[in-house]
């Protein structure tokens, strides 16, 4: 419950924040957020989960609000506070600014740590093994060194420099701390990997960057993570974070969480990867047999090649659209299922033999004095095999699961590609289209508390879409929509008189170009947001030469560079225009005179393009449900509000918004989208 002590701690933190934070504004919406989070997490609401969804518009001060309320509650209940952001930029802001400030005003003492995935850290054992002189490698493992091809001098130089820097403590062991990180292919050979890690049995355990970071996180009261890490860690059994039951989670920018979750429940593996993996398995078995002198199991290479060849012959004749063949929601044809089941049987047998030999090897090296270099190399090879075989088995088992009419179907598809040697490669893919029940089972039903927050959590003024995506039940949790502290009534939201519908691509593009020439003030700051790269490039070609100020087009420079150039122009009193896509419609913070006019080319409806989206649409249609009303329209509403949110970032910001989409006035759904907007001054030009 919310005790007198907790109330006092929260109140004290808030009062100190007022004094400590520069430019602090006392906002009723922030007070409300603090109060509701506090009551929810301490069980003040009867028959309610300790879960709250808070839509906190820009300017609310949501980060401070959840820190002020959550820190004392987490400490009092002896739980870890896990703050998960959607992206690296926000994670760094929380780490380098918000938490540092919270240390000054918080009424409770706390330690904090940054949590990253294991693969962001170097495995010092692998790094040393790979930089040792190859001539000193034991001859018994000549065929099974970690290098799958002879390393270049540059590769060895890069690794040697990293080894030296780590030994001299100039480098922490995190890839993110390297000024010039190695290419991904090289980094993967030396990155920490749970399948190849010997944990406490490793001679470098006490000097391991990953375990040092994990130890620091285990002692911290606050762990700063991101959505991907939280999801991956919980799905894989909590290798980095504490147990779910011991955590209070804050998911910042929570409107991204469902898409992140979908990607973590997707599996894929190609025919060539399967062939390579079965050969690597055989190589590992051969090395074990060479050392221990035991009977060799049967080889699976020939049978696997034959089974994959039979599968390839059938799937090569499927119809592919943009190199993808999507199976219907009724399932994968029996002919293809039977062929993949044959491959599954072979890999099951191979994995059984592999596990037996892995156990024999482990017993052998523990009870015999074997050269450390041999042990390290072979353990790495075995670990990599374990990872590869496990992933193939997971894919094939899921791909061959029987349909359950009581659940949403999985999305199954095959993608084709050409290898460097011109060979065809086919990737089998399977993904869940609805992960809500899994999220509830893994996190929501177990966590000590959960706070979801973002400037845009609702769609069409409702939390229904969020609840559907994340598996939340309206009557079991708390929901809060806060009013914006900004004066949106002073902003003109202009629905421009446009003859062409966005569905008439060529005419719409031509008309936008003409309108932009008339409407852009080249002495001011303008952001033009497009839904497609093709239209953005076409409009730029049509008007760029006629503009009397700088035009920055996404793709020509990095996002960071464009924003820096734009701000510099404004500082020097020059007009500046940015043409951007989705990534400029969110997370761009141009305050004051750095942005005067936001122009939106058209509404961003999500056309089902990915296999998961297409399967979802087919599934809803099979239930006589309307995917446009359930998915496309709510998502378009959320995206429109996000795009509009680029304009007003502080209480003193002003400007206008123009949209070139006549569907807002010609289609039945237009009034729903307009109604969901902040209270702008809506101006509909006569059509």
Rg value: 28 Å
Q: What's the CATH topology name of the largest domain?
A: Rossmann fold
Strand content: 5-15%
CATH homologous superfamily caption of the largest domain: P-loop containing nucleotide triphosphate hydrolases
> Which CATH class of the largest domain?
Alpha Beta
Helix content: 40-55%
Number of domains: 4
Main sheet properties: 7 strands, parallel
What is the CATH architecture annotation of the largest domain? 3-Layer(aba) Sandwich
Strand order of the largest sheet: 3-4-2-5-10-1-11
Shape: globular
Number of helices: 23
User: In terms of per-residue confidence, which ranges show pLDDT below 50 for 5 or more consecutive residues?
Assistant: 134-145
Compute the separation of the termini in Å.
58 Å
What do these coordinates show?
- The chain has 687 residues and is α/β, with parallel strands linked by helices.
- It has 4 domains: 206 residues, Rossmann fold (3-Layer(aba) Sandwich), CATH 3.40.50; 83 residues, no CATH class; 166 residues; 197 residues, P-loop containing nucleotide triphosphate hydrolases (Rossmann fold), CATH 3.40.50.
- The chain is 46% helix and 13% strand.
- The chain is built from 23 helices and 18 strands.
- The strands form 3 sheets. It has a 7-stranded parallel β-sheet, with helices on both faces. It has a 7-stranded parallel β-sheet with strand order 14-15-13-16-17-12-18, with helices on both faces.
- Strand 14, helix 19 and strand 15 form a beta-alpha-beta unit.
- The chain is globular and about 85 Å long.
């Amino acid at each position: 419950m919310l005790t007198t002590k907790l109330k006092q701690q929260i109140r004290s933190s808030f009062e100190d924040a007022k004094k400590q934070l520069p430019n602090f504004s006392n906002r009723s919406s922030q007070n409300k957020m603090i109060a509701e989070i506090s009551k929810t997490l301490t069980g003040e609401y009867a028959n309610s989960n300790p879960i709250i969804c808070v839509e906190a518009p820009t300017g609310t001060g949501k980060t401070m609000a959840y820190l002020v309320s959550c820190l004392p509650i987490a400490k009092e209940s002896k739980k870890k506070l896990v703050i998960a952001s959607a992206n690296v930029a926000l994670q760094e802001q929380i780490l380098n600014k918000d938490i540092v400030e919270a240390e000054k005003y918080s009424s409770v003492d706390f330690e904090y740590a940054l949590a990253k995935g294991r693969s962001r850290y170097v495995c010092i054992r692998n790094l040393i093994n790979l930089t040792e002189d190859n001539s000193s490698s034991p001859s018994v493992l000549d065929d099974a060194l970690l290098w799958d091809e002879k390393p270049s001098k540059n590769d060895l130089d890069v690794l040697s420099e990293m080894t030296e820097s780590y030994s001299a403590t100039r480098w922490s062991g995190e890839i993110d701390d390297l000024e010039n990180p190695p290419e991904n292919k090289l980094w993967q050979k030396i990155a920490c990997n749970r399948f190849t890690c010997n944990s406490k049995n490793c001679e470098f355990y006490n000097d391991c960057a990953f375990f040092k970071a994990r130890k620091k996180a285990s002692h911290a009261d606050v762990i700063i993570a991101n959505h991907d890490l939280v999801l991956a860690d919980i799905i894989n059994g909590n290798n980095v974070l504490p147990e779910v039951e011991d955590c209070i989670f804050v998911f910042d920018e929570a409107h991204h969480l469902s898409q992140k979750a979908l990607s973590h429940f997707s599996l894929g593996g190609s025919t060539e990867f399967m062939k390579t993996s079965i050969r690597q398995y055989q190589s590992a078995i051969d090395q074990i047999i060479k050392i221990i002198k035991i009977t060799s199991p049967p080889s699976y290479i020939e049978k696997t090649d034959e089974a994959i060849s039979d599968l390839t012959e059938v799937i090569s004749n499927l119809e592919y659209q943009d190199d993808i063949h999507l199976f219907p929601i009724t399932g994968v044809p029996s002919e293809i299922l039977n062929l993949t089941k044959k491959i599954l049987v072979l890999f099951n047998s191979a994995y059984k033999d592999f596990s037996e030999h892995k156990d024999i090897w482990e017993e052998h090296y523990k009870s015999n004095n074997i050269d450390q270099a041999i042990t390290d190399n072979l353990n790495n090879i075995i670990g990599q095999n374990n990872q590869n075989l496990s992933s193939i088995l997971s894919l094939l088992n899921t791909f061959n699961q029987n349909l359950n009419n009581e659940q949403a179907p999985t999305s199954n598809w095959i993608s084709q590609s050409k290898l460097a040697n011109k060979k065809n490669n086919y990737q089998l893919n399977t993904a869940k289209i609805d992960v809500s029940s899994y999220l509830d089972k893994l996190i929501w039903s177990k966590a000590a508390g959960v706070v979801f927050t973002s400037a845009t959590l609702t769609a069409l003024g409702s939390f229904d879409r969020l609840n559907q995506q994340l598996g939340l039940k309206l009557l079991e949790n708390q929901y809060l929509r806060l009013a914006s502290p900004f004066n949106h009534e002073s902003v003109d939201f202009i629905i421009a008189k446009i003859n062409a519908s966005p569905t008439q691509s060529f005419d719409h593009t031509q008309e936008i170009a003409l309108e932009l020439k008339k409407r852009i003030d080249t002495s001011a700051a303008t952001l033009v947001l497009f839904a497609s790269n093709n239209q953005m490039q076409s409009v730029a070609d049509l008007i760029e030469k006629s503009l009397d100020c700088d035009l920055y087009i996404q793709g020509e420079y990095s996002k960071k560079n464009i924003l820096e150039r734009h701000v510099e122009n404004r500082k020097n009193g020059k007009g500046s225009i940015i043409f951007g896509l989705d990534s400029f419609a969110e997370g761009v913070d141009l305050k004051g005179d750095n942005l005067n006019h936001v122009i939106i080319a058209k509404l961003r409806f999500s056309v089902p393009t990915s296999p998961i989206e297409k399967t979802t649409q087919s599934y809803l249609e099979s239930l006589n449900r309307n995917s446009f009303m359930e998915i496309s329209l709510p998502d378009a509403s959320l995206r429109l509000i996000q795009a509009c949110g680029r304009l007003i970032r502080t209480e003193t910001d002003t400007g206008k918004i123009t949209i070139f989409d006549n569907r807002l006035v010609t289609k039945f759904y237009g009034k729903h989208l307009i109604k969901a907007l902040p209270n702008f001054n809506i101006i509909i030009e006569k059509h």
